[in-house]
Design brief:
The chain has 220 residues and is an all-alpha fold. It has a single domain, classed as MetI-like (MetI-like fold). It has helices at residues 9-44, 53-68, 71-77, 79-86, 91-116, 120-128, 133-166, 174-184, 189-217.
Amino acid sequence: MIDFSAIDWSDIGQATLETLAMTGLSLFFTVLIGLPLGILLFLTARKQLLAQRGVYAVLSLAVNVLRSVPFLILLIVMIPVTLLLVGTSLGVEGSIPPLVIGTAPFFARLVENVLREIDRGVLEACQAMGAKTHQIIFGALLPEALPGLLAAVTITAITLMSYAAMSGVIGGGGLGDLAIRYGYQRFQTEVMIVTVAVLVVLVQLLQFFGDRLVLHFTRK
């Protein structure tokens, strides 16, 4: 019989904060890496400003390879690298490197696709006025793509939250770790139900605020 009174709500609160920390920090580094990578993919593609078939092929292959590795396998494979970078493969710190490596290529591809949707007339007008590449990027590309980029960030944040929960398999901390240690290994069904409910609420909040930002910055 399910008994919610037996739940240690302080553990739930701590695990929720850890999940938010993992998601927030990983999202920051994912955008920091994925945004320039996505811009470079776009610029070096065929018929673009810096078209370089070889460079694009190498970058695209690297992105596709990393995206094709299942995240649970990546968690395990990344353990030696994570130990080297942060000194531990456990907890919030140990989860961030694999989370970033797992989602940065995904975000980069989203950025590339968003930039492809921009009207080429905007870029051609900038070139006709003699704008340099960096001026086109920061003066035209990114401002025009802002709503789409915000939508991509929202999708990536939700994906990261899902991955952060998966990291509990190897002791990554957060709600996933709590669900596995108590809900699965100790058969405390009520803990599993509460952790899933909290994750659902967090995802809904992320989607809501992300949609609001996209709507706010979308030009009428």
